[in-house]
Design a protein that fits this description.
By secondary structure, the chain is an alpha+beta fold. The protein has a 3-stranded antiparallel sheet, covered by helices on one side. Strands 1-2 form a two-stranded antiparallel ribbon. Helix content is 20%, strand content 31%.
């Protein structure tokens, strides 16, 4: 994984790991793959945007870094998304945003046994594209 190189006069080093930091304080982490899926059987009427890290190290970074998670939860909120979760590449998912609220849940977990139960509580958009209220369990 290579970090993007900024011009020498604009470059500074992150103290802990030696990575290049851009003028806005960001560090290039590599490629992220995106798969868009429409009309999932478990969630008709919704599109799924699946961002996948290119390497295991990046996956671990996504899991451990609050600032990286904030990028994806922020994108979810800004786009009106109903759910933002992290696939831990094992048998569980971590849910970080649900129906406009920050949450800390796991699937499977005490609140949601599987992805179908999670999808069942998603707010459906109204005619103007805004989420309609559906009570959470």
């Amino acid at each position: 994984m290579s970090a993007r190189r900024w011009p020498k006069w604009r470059r500074r080093r992150a103290p802990a790991d030696g990575l290049d930091v851009d003028p806005l304080g960001r560090v290039a982490i590599g490629y992220v793959y995106l798969t868009v899926e429409f009309a999932r059987p478990s969630a008709p009427g919704f599109a799924s945007l699946d961002f996948m890290a290119a390497t295991t190290r990046m996956s671990l970074l996504f899991e451990r870094s609050a600032s990286v998670r904030e990028v994806f939860t922020g994108l979810t909120a800004a786009s009106g998304g109903v759910c933002c979760l992290l696939d831990k590449e094992c048998v569980e998912y971590r849910v970080y945003r649900l129906n406009g609220e920050a949450v800390r849940e796991t699937v499977p977990g005490p609140r949601f046994a599987d992805m179908d139960e999670l999808a069942a509580v998603w707010r459906r958009p109204d005619a103007h594209g805004r989420g309609t209220h559906r009570p959470l369990p």
